[in-house]
Write a structure and sequence with these properties.
The protein is of the alpha+beta class. It has one domain. It has one helix and two strands. It has a two-stranded antiparallel ribbon. The longest helix has 18 residues. The radius of gyration is 14 Å and the shape is elongated.
């Protein structure tokens, strides 16, 4: 829809190419800034939900 913005979290391979969509907005945002904030929040939630990597 023109004028609407959506965010998508994608998993990538070692080269940075998207391999699958992990999460996406359920509804569009009215502005780029609102979509960016919502996507950033979703990424932070996703990262906190994953176990921490083992120390090297």
């Amino acid at each position: 829809m023109p004028g609407a913005f959506v965010w998508t979290l994608a998993e990538t391979d070692a080269r940075g190419r998207p391999t699958r969509v992990a999460r996406r907005a359920l509804e569009p945002s009215d502005s780029y800034e609102a979509a960016l904030a919502a996507g950033t929040h979703a990424l932070n939630v996703q990262m906190r939900a994953q176990p921490a990597p083992a120390p090297a």
